Structures
1.
Amino acid sequence: MKIIAVGRNYINHAKELNNPVPTEPVIFMKPDTAILKDDKDFYYPEFSNDVHYEVEIVVRICNEGKHIAPKFAHKYYDAIGLGIDFTARDLQARQKERGLPWELAKSFDHSAVVSPFIPKVNFPNVEEIEFSLTKNGSTVQIGNTKNMIFNIDRLLIYISKYITLRKGDLIFTGTPEGVGPVSIGDKLEGFIAEKAMFSCQIK
């Protein structure tokens, strides 16, 4: 199982970080050791002083796919979840300054919160899923998949040109605007529409 993540997939998020709006998906990966599930606590890493939350819709792959054709893309995922792409923003800034990859800032242990999954058939329209994140009870991010630059099908088509997708793989589809720092003692809670999906205490 692998985690493939998408950066800058919402225009307003790209702008809030002073990044150009991409013309094709920005892809990076996280190892399976990044996964944090079952509402477990997140322990602040010692190598960063500026860890940020980024809430994202997560897609679960159900079939092996390479060079997926557009008309079949919808058949390659069967469930939708919610996650957090924790990012060590200070480390990311240093890596970007030197023209180095982001992985150390994005792929550290427990940097990928993953909720339970909801069958895709339960959603009337996967291109209009509202989701949100609260910090200590206050809403900090609100997103909707209709605002993605590259929708789920387009992401699978693009990724599968380069990387074979396999059953159980997870795709983090990008975060909307509103990202920000976490501190020890914070509590993050994620929602799809009104349904609570995960809770994560920062320790």
2.
Amino acid sequence: MSVTARTESTRERILSVAESIILNNGFSGTSIDDIIKNAAITKGGFFYHFNGKKELAKALVERYLEQDNRIFEELFFASDQDSDDPLKQIIGFLDRFATMVENLDETHPGCLVAGFTYESQQFDEEVQDLIKQGVLVWRKLFQLRLERASEQYSLQTDISITAIADMFTSCVEGGIILSRIFKSNDALVQQVQLYREFLRLAFVA
């Protein structure tokens, strides 16, 4: 393994371990020493990659949003292959998302974006803006597709397309909370399915 590969491997291990601990203990409840111990690295190893917790927080948010966006893109790409109908593409995405969650080996670990939002006072404006922009990307992802669907279907509600797009985020985040409370992914799957059913009822040919 090259030096660059080892460096990236160590950095990724730090981020993975840090995310797992933070999702369980919160950002303020997680110390650098906790991360060092669980990642099996030295203090010098940690500070080689990150100047401190603030820089770590930024890297964690960027990594989390990148992973989520990649998953969303892959699921939508697969759904787009099945149909040219924009509503069916969204429904297909939601079906695939629900199946993905259903097939997880363990209860969903939680959402870093939601967790960091609860502890927003711990972060500087740069990290808070990263979180906001990430959620806006999710909104835009659905908003554009819902707008295309509204050109082919009659929308049976006065609720704005933007609010309906945000409903995906609220259903997923709420479903994650319920899943963690009940220690089962069923609640998250059901919330996604409810969103799917809402869209089926809201858009009529």
